[in-house]
Specification:
binds 5-phosphoarabinonic acid, Rossmann fold
Length: 436
């Protein structure tokens, strides 16, 4: 597996080369605690080899070993306790809209990341149509939003299930060993899975935080882990193309140094929106400190070319663009023959679409990405292109490990601690104050 990274900064090659030298010197710091911090939060590094592959093997097929039937996975979590699962599920999971999909895959209903009554009303109606399992994911076990939603949901489910049945269907994934949840679940403790202390929320995607719900939803978690493992192995072996790809970190840093305040991650697949959210959280929460760092924002092309495309082309020169290019999305182990969609070539289509008629949609999409890259480059918007090949589970695992690594390397260049989030804690304190 590889990822190719191409950077386009007109006339800045020397600066970038110097930064890349410094960046590569920082690789050895990836496995260490950040500067003077006593706790080591770098357990995410080389996680697949150290723990992840074993965990993925243990959890694989967990759903088929349950003593009851279920047809929906409810994930209750916020921040790093849900974005990773959503990123992967959006790409390869069963959707709530299409019934009778691959029988081993179950849809996921994401709750606990919002407190909207009207939206939750709709979600409860969906829940009523299924026999769910519930994953409460919270590293601290103390976050208000997911805990509030579990309280509401479990009460709602009492109309259909006994208290014991609800507990039987509840999985608690946390690093909090004294939570009220554990007292409640205690006779059935096997349904408690731990998030290790040395992995902070936004780096927890390859831990039980996401693996448990993903395994229950029938995902190929072993392939995901294999891809991430491959990245770390290549990095440990200091393979040249892997080291080269790390230029993504200094490129973002240089863009910020030169006054670019926004990084737009442009992708052409709507199924990558979840990954965009995960990526946004990873970089914003890890780097956005001490008035530093570029603001990360995911963007779906073509949709956004018809809105913020205007700003990119003629608005304030504050944008750095990263194009995430794939050769389509295809779950590993899906051996169905590929069915492609092509614009018809009949007279009406030719009249309506001219030279675009007869093209496959993906090919047209690729041309749209190329055209926007060219148009924005003419305006000297610096950019970076990441090519990952077919987006399947193992390539996604590889990409996740690549983003985690370049994020921490970016924080090193910015000289900020990637693992804390004092800003997030500040709002929690204010909320407690308002509630008291
Ligand atoms: O990255 C982080 O640490 C945060 O985004 C947390 O994931 C988020 O605040 C949720 O916290 P918890 O998992 O403790 O409920």
């Amino acid at each position: 597996m590889t990822i190719s990274v191409e950077v386009n900064f007109s006339k800045k090659e020397d600066l970038l080369e110097n930064l890349q030298r410094k960046n590569l010197e920082n690789i050895d710091r990836l496995r260490e605690p950040y500067e003077d911090e006593s706790e080591n939060n770098s357990l995410w590094y080389n996680w697949p080899e150290n723990e992840g592959k074993k965990l993925a093997s243990e959890l694989d097929g967990i759903g088929s070993r349950l003593p009851y039937y279920y047809d929906l996975v409810v994930v209750i979590g916020i921040g790093g306790s849900y974005t990773g699962t959503k990123a992967i599920h959006d790409l390869f999971g069963a959707s709530l809209e299409i019934r009778n999909q691959e029988p081993q895959k179950k849809p996921i209903l994401f709750c606990g990341y919002h407190l909207s009554e009207s939206y939750l009303q709709k979600q409860l109606k969906i829940l009523d149509q299924y026999k769910p399992v519930i994953c409460v994911v919270s590293k601290s076990g103390r976050t208000l939003e997911p805990n509030a939603i579990y309280a509401v949901l479990s009460t709602h489910l009492k109309k259909r299930f006994s208290h014991e049945e609800i507990l039987e269907r509840t999985f608690f994934i946390s690093s909090k060993k004294e939570s009220p949840f554990l007292k409640e679940l205690s006779p059935n403790k096997p349904r408690y899975f731990s998030i290790p202390d040395g992995i902070v929320g936004r780096f927890s995607v390859l831990s039980a935080a996401s693996l448990v719900p993903l395994a229950l939803a029938g995902h190929n978690i072993k392939a995901l882990m294999r891809g991430a493992d491959d990245f770390f192995k290549q990095l440990e072996a200091k393979e040249e193309h892997t080291l080269k790809s790390l230029i993504y970190a200094p490129a973002r840093f240089l863009a910020w140094k030169q006054g670019k305040s926004i990084e737009l991650l442009a992708y052409e697949e709507p199924q990558l929106e979840g990954l965009g959210l995960w990526w946004q959280q990873l970089f914003a929460e890890s780097e956005g400190k001490q008035e530093k760092a570029i603001f990360p924002m995911g963007s779906l092309f073509s949709r956004d070319l018809h809105s913020i495309g205007q700003y990119i082309q003629e608005g304030s020169k504050s944008i750095f663009e990263t194009f995430l290019l794939t050769s389509g999305v295809r779950s590993e182990g899906n051996f169905e023959s590929e069915s492609r969609i092509r614009i018809p070539t009949d007279e009406f289509s030719r009249e309506l679409l001219g030279k675009a008629s007869g093209h496959y949609l993906d090919d047209l999409n690729e041309k749209i990405m190329k055209a926007s890259r060219r148009a924005h480059s003419l305006r000297e918007v610096p950019n970076c292109t990441l090519r990952i090949g077919v987006m399947n589970e193992s390539n996604l695992g590889f990409l996740i490990a690549f983003f985690q690594t370049t994020c921490v390397l970016g924080a090193f260049l910015l000289e900020v601690n990637p693992y804390n989030q004092p800003g997030v804690e500040a709002y929690k304190k204010e909320l407690l104050h308002l509630l008291s």
